[in-house]
Amino acid sequence: MSTVEAPLYPIAVLIDELKNDDIQIRLNSIRRLSTIARALGEERTRSELIPFLSENNDDDDEVLLAMAEELGVFIPYVGGVEHAYVLLTPLETLCTVEETCVRDKAVESLCKIGSQMRENDLIEWFTPLVKRLAAGEWFTARVSACGLFHIAYPSAPETLKTELRSIYGQLCQDDMPMVRRSAASNLWKFAGTVESAHLKADIMQMFEDLTQDDQDTVRLLAVEGCAALGKLLEPQDCAARILPVIVTFSQDKSWRVRYMVANQLYELCEAVGPEPIRTDLLPAYVRLLRDNEAEVRIAAAGKVTKFCQILSPELAIQHILPCVKELSLDSSQHVRAALASVVMGMAPVLGKDATIEQLLPIFLSLLKDEFPDVRLNIISKLDQVNQVIGIDLLSQSLLPAIVELAEDRHWRVRLAIIEYIPLLANQLGVGFFDDKLGGLCMQWLQDKVYSIRDAAANNLKRLAEEFGPDWAMQHIIPQVLEIANDSHYLHRMTLLRAISLLGPVLGSEITCSKLLPVVVNASKDRVPNIKFNVAKVLQSLISVVDQSVVEKTIRPCLVELSEDPDVDVRYFAVQGLQSIDQVTMSS
Amino acid sequence: MNGGDEVAAAPAGPPQSLDWKFSQVFGERTAGEEVQEVDIISAIEFDKTGDHLATGDRGGRVVLFERTDTKDHGVPRRDLERMEYPIGRHPEFRYKTEFQSHEPEFDYLKSLEIEEKINKIRWCQTANGALFLLSTNDKTIKFWKVQEKKVKKISDMNLDPSKAVGNGSIASSSTPKLCLANGGSPDRSYNYLGNDFSFPPGGLPSLRLPVVTSQETNLVARCRRVYAHAHDYHINSVSNNSDGETFISADDLRINLWNLEISNQSFNIVDVKPANMEDLTEVITSAEFHPTHCNTLAYSSSKGSIRVIDLRQSALCDSHAKLFEEPEAPGSRSFFTEIIASISDIKFARDGRYILSRDYMTLKLWDINMDSGPVATFQVHEYLRPKLCDLYENDSIFDKFECCLSGDGLRVATGSYSNLFRVFGCAPGSTEATTLEASKNPMRRQVQTPSRPSRSLSSITRVVRRGAENPGVDANGNAFDFTTKLLHLAWHPTENSIACAAANSLYMYYA
User: Fold this and answer.
1) Pick from B128, B209, B261: which is nearest to A138 by CB?
2) Separation in Å, CA of A255 to nearest CA in chain B
3) DSSP per-residue codes, B168-195
């Protein structure tokens, strides 16, 4: 045991704690690994710290995960890029551990380091590491190997490249499904580094093997990567090699595979060009929209707008629109909800006539859906359709839908519609709003559920921002201030909340003339909760009104409250007075 | 994967009956010792290689055993599996470790006690020499990792550890309390060591890294994941998928699909709960994945049917792909017909072609390609049929016996009362039907008793804690004792070796 000079004491503790019994302390220490490395110096970091970490491989997974992450940015601490290879050893052991998140992080860090390493070092150190992992006895090593090929490959000499390709081919046919899954999900990364000739031969062969795997999960991941793979190929190769696979997959026996196709199809379209879309992908997509599994239809319905955007309007009207009509009457509410969230986006694609003729009936039927999520999803995207056809055509059906949602017995539904009120107000205009929706906004202020009352207060603020102080003076303030006489103290509390939100928006003049008197009046309420909320509101209004008003009105009121019998009221009143003093001093 | 070939390669004639011999017992009771409820074994499972065996008990413990007769020094595991063992060798196991998997709990919302009893154990893919297994009680599934860990002996610290602990203000920065409160964030006292603090370019030579000296290891079991709150009813099965990524758990009314890595969500794939619980006529009793087809699983019901479902067909597999049930023989119906038809356990054969099911009176073997009826039916304890009324009175009729198949698929086994279990040959033409007793002398109920000295058991660790046979059952072939039932047993995946549980004792036999 040596004695350590005083300034070094904390760093000495930090180093010792690398082996502390408490996992949190070890974690803490590992997170400061760069500090330890700088204290030891580059030379000793290479010769002592890194070997030390390499042996520290049976620690808890949380510590290993932190270590894998720290090592990824460790190049400066070992003496720069020329020494980067020393970091490979500890990361190699981390690539073999059982916990997936540790391995993933170690692979990520290895990729970061590898992409900075010099070409010779890559050949000398990195590629052998990849080969060792790929030949690992346990599947964990082989799983990790798959994610490293794209770093090792570009700098390898020709013979080594051939070898790497063949090793990857073997990984694609590994006994363990975990390894094949990793090979499938990393294939497109590796493919991106492979020369075009080999891409068409070797890589495509691997891809085809993976797409015929017995395990659904492997095929799934092969589908997931095929859009990325397709983009690497020439359009005609993509059409020849990837397209048939996708078309087959879109009719796979497993709904999970079809689900994945439904999610990926749109991206693949970008890779193949217009002609194959019309002849192959469009029919495949239409099949997926009519799939017998609801999950597949949900995925397909969610892409309907994106897909229409790459088609000509005629094709969209001819092929997609009939499916959309069917989906709007789907037996699964989740399918209808997925459709409702995107279908409004089709309006700009189809143009005004088709929208009015074909889409409008669909909107209207979705707006009357029995499932509130469907209606909400339509309303949330109202701006898109408004741009094309204008609100007049919709407003007739819109209003009953909104009113019904506003009175839904589930408070979450009510909450959701409140969130959309400013959007609706913006789209519908002041006139429509005043007539139909103003009442609702007031009604929510007295809802049974706190979250709704709170959201309602916030909603008033957003409306005041939208339409301006003058409008608010006319349409909001009188009704709001009436609540001051409500017999229910919770409603009076909501009023205070609304005032604290509205004050800053409406400005000093209105606040002083209209809002402040109400607040001061409320300070004489019999309920202490109201009184300390008055104190809080007054505190928030200090910055809104003039100094003179603060001294004339707010301070006396707070002083009075600060002598209240209730301890909470006194507390918040004193807080308010203190912030007045702070403002006065700073100005 | 060899299972199918082995069946095909079987000799034309029916195989010889096996001559079963006693191999080992763990937790044998001494005379007069009473069985503790918590020690009663409630689950047995071999791992895929047969090198490990796990048992679970009513006290929520999992005990692991490892095979000792195959020391794989220098021989790759895969080759070892294919090796033919010299005749005369048979699997021998030794106690490896044990851990407390589940504790008794109380569900405050439902005012329900959740007992710690282990209902099922399933082994998962081994990695890096660490063992992985799933264990479940009625409600909660846990994923365990059992691994050798180095025992740390640290020396060469920078600070004297004894001094550092009591050393004023700076050292207190490293007390656990402070660090835990901060989560992983760096302590305040380290802050001045931030990037602005400059170290000399060569580093500080007086600092040293701790040195770990001891190379001793010990086995540590860590619970890696807990899959909870997904079952309203009692979990009766868990089963791994061949994709190595997912597993299912089944309770009376639902089957859920999990990803091993994700413990906070699962997907309901089968739901037999009727809208009105008064309409409930059938519950799920057991479920298992196909050994190689990742999308196929089978579940059995209390009405005696087995349904095979295809996960590819739809997200919620309410409609089955195949239904296996035996048509009721006309006129034979009695009060007990429906009760004894309930299937207590199903197992896929290793090649996935056959399913074995156990109901109260029989074992049935089903060909997955033939849904008209079982290919073979074996009477387990037909002599009990006249006594069904008594068995109903004392609730024994609801006992859930497990069943198992040999790795080559040529034989099946299941338990009965009086600590008996039966092994049947199921190859075409075989008439093999052996009754064995879970004792050191398994064949004594047979006419000829093979005289073979029992092995020394001195090396077994749990002997002290566990007792010997109940003297009451010793009477040779006399009245059946309904309290000593052999519910749980497992067949070694590659060899003719059976592990079975008689109360708190684990008996192992070979042939």
Assistant:
1) B128
2) 5
3) HHHHGGGSHHHHHHTTTSPPGGGGGGST
